[in-house]
Amino acid sequence: MNYQIELRHFIYFLAVAEELHYRKAAEKLFISQPGLSTQIKQMEEILDTQLFIRDKKKVSLTPAGEFLKKEVEFILNHLEQTKKQLKLIGEGHMGEVRIGFLGSAMQNVVPNLLLGLKERYPKVHTTLEELSNRAQINAILADRLDLGFVRLSRVPIGLEVKPVFEDTFSLVLPEEHPLDKGNFKNINQVANEDFILFSQDYSPTYYDTVLSICEDGGFAPNVSHKSVHAQTIFKLVENKLGIAIVPTTLQYGFQMKVKFIELRKIKQRAVLSMVWKTDNRNPALQKCMDLLMKL
Amino acid sequence: MNYQIELRHFIYFLAVAEELHYRKAAEKLFISQPGLSTQIKQMEEILDTQLFIRDKKKVSLTPAGEFLKKEVEFILNHLEQTKKQLKLIGEGHMGEVRIGFLGSAMQNVVPNLLLGLKERYPKVHTTLEELSNRAQINAILADRLDLGFVRLSRVPIGLEVKPVFEDTFSLVLPEEHPLDKGNFKNINQVANEDFILFSQDYSPTYYDTVLSICEDGGFAPNVSHKSVHAQTIFKLVENKLGIAIVPTTLQYGFQMKVKFIELRKIKQRAVLSMVWKTDNRNPALQKCMDLLMKL
DNA sequence: TCTATTTGATAATTCATAATTATTGATTAA
DNA sequence: TTAATCAATAATTATGAATTATCAAATAGA
Predict the structure, then answer these.
(1) What confidence score (pLDDT) does residue A158 get?
(2) Nucleotide of closest approach to A57 (CA, C1')
(3) Which residue ranges form the domains of chain A, and what is each CATH number?
(4) What is the pTM of this model?
(5) I need a labelling partner for A266 at 20 to 30 A (CA). Which of A64, A69, A131, B50 fits?
């Protein structure tokens, strides 16, 4: 007799503990009374502890039985809860999506995604991390991230990219700079200025694009500073250490003494793309992506 | 096919989730591989949720599977404990409290608790285990521990903390060190010494606190060694490899050629707290806590 | 490229055991 | 006393878990 306790035993036990009557309990469980009797007896043998006192037409719980009753109630409850949660997670209505993003995605796409998620799938948790393009790609490959927001044209195999937001570029100038929206005509008006750009390894695509903008304007920019933080770049511009070209949406969210001139006429766009692992099976990620398609 | 989940399923699931390999898991369970395969498949059908991804010779967990793994670990642990408690209660004892503690709690709080328990509730059994802060938290969450003694300021949700002992810090110096209780005035007198501290991951709060003590003294300590054992730290100090700052009560219980200078004037205190799971219904734990409130 | 090996899944079968029916013995109420 | 009601026991059946045998797919090695 080397049996194991099973959940069946608990369910049967609870019925008897509640009814304190084998026949009635058996009826409630839709099984026969002898079956119930043997199962309870077996249970007592397995646990090596008497749970019920059968005494002259009366069934009652021993102290150990009282204790077990409370525990079984808890365990069965917990189990039900777990099953429900499991189902939700399996369907993507619950769970966690780990999101990485470039600082410049925080002005627009990411907040919208978070708002949408909160509204449609309130039980989906998100963790956010500001990371460079490269760091995001590595994290996604290593399964430390589910979704990334990058400015890259190509990604390693095994990953997929999809553009989610196209932004124009803007010239960033100190407030006191003679150029403004009125008298600005062409990019070559700033050909002789110093330029402050995001570093190449932070975003190679951005860097190349800015160089191509200048090239189209007929000059090669003199790059005096590089940084990985928009804040830093704006601060440098504010202090007249140079001018910058950045994605237009970056102008929101900072309080700086700088002015923006949107470069509408040029063909280049700052493309923000989402990246994910092709075989990522996180169902919450699917919901996330569905939502992004609609934005 | 209207089956019911049974504990057997959980045990099988956990084996596969741990091994991520059907044949190995089956071996560990002493059953055949096909039997395991069908049982897991059946489990996924019952729960109506995919738990594993069988993909090109690799088995891995889905997010739902990851979630279930944690839950199953909890449930099976809880069950084991319940069986033990039940047996004890059936034999007329009151139950068992599983206590974890940091080495530094062994000088004072834990022995007092054990004495009090033995006197007031001689039928309550205790098991003791020396564990790091993190290990205690994990064990309590997984229901492998009822009560922990830690030095942490914050704990995960679902747990409660309560400070039980506040200790000053002491400087630990080699016996031959020129500083002593007489000529010691301020912590910055040891600003240029090497420091030996408990590792960050053993006790992040302790580490931060010691750094803040030095900071208040106007210097950043040069940390030459880190250890998880008081014994080791004292030995290193004895051999003049550096000095240490530790909770004062640690000075009792060791025989070392080191001297202690209590830092009474500084504001920082080493706070020992007890931690337990909010919904722990272990009746023996209740008794334990009542006692601790009085100490 | 071919072969051998390893993986998990299927199919057919066996076997363990839960559950059923039929019955008993004990207790209580009429 | 008799009838009724309870849980326990015995014999039997039926369910479904586990086993053996086998397969298809995917690698790794030659």
Answers:
(1) 85
(2) D6
(3) 7-91 (1.10.10.10), 95-165+272-294 (3.40.190.10), 169-268 (3.40.190.10)
(4) 0.80
(5) A131
